[in-house]
Amino acid sequence: QVCYAMKANPFLLAALPDEAVRVEVCSPGEFELCMAAGLDPARIVLSGVNKEEKDLLRAMQKGVIMYTVESLRQADLLAACARRTGASIRVLVRLSSGNQFGMDEDGVRRVCRSGLPVTGLQLYSGTQKRKPAVFRQELETLESLAARLEAECGISISELEYGPGIGVEYFRPDDGEVQLLEALAGAVRQAARTRRVVCELGRFLA
After folding, report:
1. What is the pLDDT of residues 174-186, one digit of tens each?
2. How far apart, in whole angstroms, are the C-alpha atoms of residue 31 and residue 92?
């Protein structure tokens, strides 16, 4: 399945094809644009580090179901807001690729043991990738971690949300785009044997 990262171009919301089953929203402003466009809140995954209490409460009251967690603080805040509103939510835990976004494996494991309804893992390691082997390696990393978490934490990881960061050529025709997509499709098919895979794409789709 496909998730559209709307920060790439929020004005394409009204033109999204049915294949874009999910829209990644990373700020209160993006969320309000979705509401103004009449987007079904059930299609939103509220992501990013800019999630304060008032933002989470508004999203839950509007019917947003899916949220990412990128820190232990976010996990605690999300749990508190869900209790306060009585909302039934689903949680994706973001694995860091070594940068400042997301958590290392220990942090991910702690969230999975916290009682939050974790249903998936998320990984986005960067943009402008043009090496097919990276797609395979990163999805294999997610698959392996999901299996360990299920065994260690007694939870079920039903999906992997993966941001491949496919390279975009802006100023000249790109003969390699088809090959990159074919490589990504192969890696996704491999991972999708056991779990649902949602590819988060932004600039490439735009």
Report:
1. 778 888 999 999 9
2. 18
